[in-house]
Amino acid sequence: MSASQTPPATAVPGDDLPTLLVKIFGKDRPGITAGLFDTLAAYSVDVVDIEQMVTRGRITLCALVTAPSPAEGSSGTSEGDLRATVHSWAESLNLQAEIISGRGDNRPRGTGRSHVTVLGHPLTAETAAAIAAAITATGGNIDRIFRLAKYPVTAVEFAVSGAATEALRSVLAPEAARLGVDVAVVAAGLQRRAQRLVVMDVDSTLIQDEVIELFAAHAGCEAEVAEVTAAAMRGELDFEQSLHARVELLGGLDASVVEAVRKEVRLTPGARTLVRTLKRLGYQVGVVSGGFTQVTDALQEELGLDFASANTLEIVDGKLTGRVTGDIVDRAGKARLLREFAQQAGVPLAQTVAIGDGANDLDMLNTAGLGVAFNAKPVVREAAHTAVNVPFLDTVLYLLGITREEVEAADTLVG
Ligand SMILES: [Mg+2]
């Protein structure tokens, strides 16, 4: 565009249009933003971009505006006047101002956009340095960083462009393991906001216990069952065979044990917050379990879950028979149920999230749009899209880009 042409009505300058970056830094107080733009308004400039943030009471305000046209009949330039006026306004408020001349808008962001979420407990400077360096090593550019949460972990999100999501994952996963922090890399875009179904495993995911071990304690065969469970979760045993073997050990138990076990179940910290927040956001939430409907039905009722599926312990004449009835929910069954729930919910698989800890969750985690290994065994952690290794289930919200402030604001609203 030549200088003689009329500037466009929209404030999107061509690369050759002079622009000014006005940066203000200092103690935050009411009226700074209004004051800056009031000052700029006298020069009839257009706003191209604004970024503002406040960190511990200090404001950083950046305004990218079109450069003012030289004043008619004036010996000086309007830009010179603008600079003097902004500096004088800033000094009167004890703020630092910097004005940088340039041309055009921000340079376009590179293709390939991702969100890199880091969960630290605590988040050390060493970690921040290593994550930033790893992002740079992939050719990615960090466009923005902000804090999602300070409780129960410090969660920060890096908006990254210029690198493929898979490439970022492959570089950041070993760094995260080395640093002992959780790093999730998800593709940016509408798909992330459209995630609408979350399906969780139950034992050692939604709840802290392995339900069959609670039953086993009542049957006096806890150690025997625990050993079979551990081997199955490590992927060393066929899940269905191990299920039948363990349930057989419960044969003859009085059915009243079911109620006792329900009372013993301990939800994972953050489980209620996760489910409540997801429901308020309009997500559908379900559970699939290699455990038992005798427990998952109660959880479904208590938490208001949309879907639940598990194995059913057979009870005859007030006693556990040592058998299960119906189709077995195993590794393949969990993935099949995720597909069924997604279909019933009307949500494409790409917009589903699955959370689990065991080898029998792997098919489900890899079928979902986002699979989260939650305090999982190494075999699961290594195969899943992302891993959370802090013992708080609500941290999954941060991977979805939901901030702690939003969680707490929703709680305040609803009461
Ligand atoms: Mg589990």
TrEMBL record:
Recorded metabolic or biological pathway in which this protein acts: Amino-acid biosynthesis; L-serine biosynthesis; L-serine from 3-phospho-D-glycerate: step 3/3
Source organism, top-level taxon: Bacteria
Keyword terms, alphabetized: Amino-acid biosynthesis, Hydrolase, Magnesium, Metal-binding, Serine biosynthesis
PROSITE patterns: ACT
Cofactor(s) listed: Mg(2+)
Domain ACT: 21-107
Enzyme Commission (EC) number: 3.1.3.3
GO molecular function annotations of the record: hydrolase activity
Cross-referenced Pfam families: ACT_6, ACT_PSP_2, HAD
Catalytically driven reaction(s): O-phospho-L-serine + H2O = L-serine + phosphate; O-phospho-D-serine + H2O = D-serine + phosphate
Family: Belongs to the HAD-like hydrolase superfamily. SerB family.
Name of the molecule in the record: phosphoserine phosphatase
Naturally occurring in which organism (per UniProt): Streptomyces mooreae
Gene from which the chain derives: serB
